[in-house]
């Protein structure tokens, strides 16, 4: 096992355009999320979830050059949240339709969350699939989504995303 490898570390020079925002307007919803860099150099994923027009989610994702990750076993994310539930997601291939997802509840203080690859379940458009959990051979995309089924404002501060 290797120690750890950085997947994305935010800093004052980070370009938020390296992350794509996907709001539920892709299917008619009215939620609005964005990602910015705060004065401390951390990424801030924030916005408002609306349930109007069958909406209810905001997501940010970062595409990677597909890389082997077989010598690692978990993601390690350093975040400060708002007490709400989020999900961390990944894809092993750029043309893969489903993602692997892991739900976590944020806290209002800085914390390090460890996400074992083997606990990330295959999902497509929010539905669990009868596929094996993430096998951790390759990594092509990382994402964070909020989709709690309630109308709410949200803020998640992100310092780093690593694999270990």
From TrEMBL:
Residues 8-158 form the NADH:ubiquinone oxidoreductase intermediate-associated protein domain. Belongs to the CIA30 family. This is Complex I intermediate-associated protein 30 (CIA30).
């Amino acid at each position: 096992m290797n120690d750890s490898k950085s997947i994305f570390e935010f800093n004052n020079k980070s370009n938020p355009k390296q992350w794509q925002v996907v709001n539920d307007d892709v299917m008619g919803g009215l939620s609005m999320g964005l990602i910015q860099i705060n004065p401390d150099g951390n990424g801030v994923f924030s916005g408002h979830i609306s349930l109007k027009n069958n909406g209810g989610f905001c997501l940010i994702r970062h595409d990677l050059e597909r890389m082997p990750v077989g010598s690692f076993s978990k993601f390690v994310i350093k975040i400060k949240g708002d007490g709400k539930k989020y999900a961390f997601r990944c894809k092993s291939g750029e043309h893969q339709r489903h993602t692997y997802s892991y739900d976590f509840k944020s806290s209002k203080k800085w914390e390090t969350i460890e996400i074992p690859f083997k606990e990330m379940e295959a999902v497509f458009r929010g539905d669990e699939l009868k596929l094996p959990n993430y096998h951790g051979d390759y990594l092509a995309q990382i994402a964070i989504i909020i989709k709690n089924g309630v109308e709410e404002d949200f803020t998640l501060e992100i310092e780093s995303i690593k694999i270990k």
